Amino acid sequence: MNFKISNAYQAESLVLIPVLKTDDYAIFLKNILEKYKMNIPNIENDFSADIKSMLILYTPTHKIALLGLGKKYEENELIRAFRFFFLKQKNALQGKIGLEIQHIPDNYLSEIVNGILLGSYDSQLHKTEKKQEKNWFLNAESEVTFYTNISKEKSIILIDKGQKIATSQMSIMDLVNDAPNYKTPKTLIEWAKKSGEINGFDVKILDKAQLEKEKLGCLLAVGNAGRVEPALILLEYKPKNSRKKIGLVGKGITFDNGGVSIKGSTNMHFMKSDMGGAAAVLGAIETAAKLQLDIHLVCAVPVAENLLGSNAYLPGDVLTSYLGKTVEVIDTDAEGRLIMADALTYLNRNYSPEILIDIATLTGSAVRTFGYAAAALLTNNEELAKNLYDSGLKTGEKLWRLPLWDDYEDDISSDVADVRNFSGKDMAGCIAAGKFLEVFTEKHQAYAHLDIAGTAFKVTEFSTMHISTAFGVRLFLDFFDKV
């Protein structure tokens, strides 16, 4: 599929006109009808302009599609509307499409492109027969021409940005959605190496032997019963002139059955998505490199399978972390915080990031607190909290802050070790996990923990089953601009 720029109408099979629901949107609609020589009295009664609303109109010479954008321009809502339209219409669209965006502010072109391309996303990774014979995106002649007043040079830059973000999002969506027999720690390692080679960032792998040498005892314990050995993926994107060094850590449990503290079977298949945090970090560094952002990124992605087996670690075990602190294992299903603990300390000590953020599908507590609408944000740094919160609102990848107060330290205290990995209480679980991870940052002054358990993998308006949302990629990209 190709994108073109024009300031004049051409002979497309369809003209798509996005409509904002302003107080006078009826006047806008009237002007559109006059332009295309149509007369439909009180068209606002047939078309509300609410987000994702659609109306197809026909004339002897034109096919017009109106697309509602809601009450105000928002990045996420634009992406949402265009993704919905192109997803729902992909088997009805034909040939070339014209898209009137003269009335939309210039800076939203990349979001429009992003939404269009996300509308092509297909989660049917392993279907042998796919019902997409008429899929418009698969037609070599498919083309979108933007009718815009933006200069060609600026348009090319914005279109390129939208394409690069969308392709990275869809790539990590494939990672998260993929089956556990196709996706192991080795898969994530190979993905990172390939992306680093193509996009220009460094990738280093600490394999099991190196983990043992460096004494990352928590990561080793969790991955000990896995079919594939655990590892630590280290990534660095360093442009010539960078403003800030940011450290990202993403949880990479490629499948989690809970280990000895085994999960119930009902939704265990969803645990193929327990590497949503790793996917967010991989997507963020790939996109930053593609866009050549002036930000220095250092990332750590601990990868492992948390399985039940003869070599599995046990409740009651005491592990020695990379930090040197001992950890009493209360629940082997609280494994994410264990691998993240070693990765946080390793990244902090060896790369010294000015800002340190971890992101993980960590606790059911976060889901019970926020449902699927927002992720949990825990930090004691006010500036960092504000920047992350604002980026969440802007991108639609929303965060809500929970306390990281010392009042919760008792939840991680242990009688036999320095800390324990689970409080054993049916309350404040998300906060207790954050307090546990904080220990392994060695009092980093700009540290934040993001628990994305409810937002990384869920049923959406674009699916009938749980799929990846690529949560975190656009959040981080916007956040990078703020620091």
What does this structure look like?
The protein has two domains: 2-165, Leucine Aminopeptidase, subunit E, domain 1 (3-Layer(aba) Sandwich); 183-482, Aminopeptidase (3-Layer(aba) Sandwich), CATH 3.40.630.10. Helices cover 34% and strands 21% of the residues. It is built from 13 helices and 20 strands. Strands 7, 8, 9, 10, 11, 14, 15, 16 and 18 form a nine-stranded mixed sheet that branches. Strands 1-6-5-2-4-3 form a six-stranded mixed sheet, with helices on both faces. 48% of the residues are buried.
What share of residues are in beta strands?
15-25%
Q: What is the CATH top level name of the largest domain?
A: Alpha Beta
Query: What is the mean pLDDT?
Result: 95
CATH topology title of the largest domain: Aminopeptidase
Number of strands: 20
Low-confidence stretches: none
Q: Helix share of residues?
A: 25-40%
Q: Main sheet? A: 9 strands, mixed
Distance between the termini: 35 Å
- Net shape: elongated
Structural class: alpha/beta
Output the CATH homologous superfamily of the largest domain.
Answer: Zn peptidases
The CATH architecture assignment of the largest domain turns out to be 3-Layer(aba) Sandwich
The value of Rg in angstroms is: 24 Å
Number of helices, where a helix is a run of at least 4 consecutive DSSP H or I residues: 13
Domain module count: 2
Short description:
The protein is of the alpha/beta class and 483 residues long. The protein has 13 helices and 20 strands. Helix 4 packs antiparallel against helix 8.
Give the arrangement of secondary structure elements.
Elements: E1 2-6, E2 14-19, H1 25-35, E3 54-58, E4 63-68, H2 75-89, E5 96-100, H3 109-118, E6 143-147, H4 152-177, H5 185-199, E7 202-206, H6 208-214, H7 217-223, E8 231-237, E9 245-250, E10 252-256, H8 276-290, E11 296-306, E12 318-320, E13 326-328, H9 336-351, E14 355-360, H10 364-370, E15 375-379, H11 382-395, E16 399-402, E17 419-420, H12 429-439, E18 447-451, E19 457-459, E20 466-468, H13 473-482
Parallel strand pairs: 1-6, 2-4, 2-5, 5-6, 9-11, 9-14, 10-11, 13-17, 14-18, 15-16
Antiparallel strand pairs: 3-4, 7-8, 8-11, 12-13, 15-18, 19-20
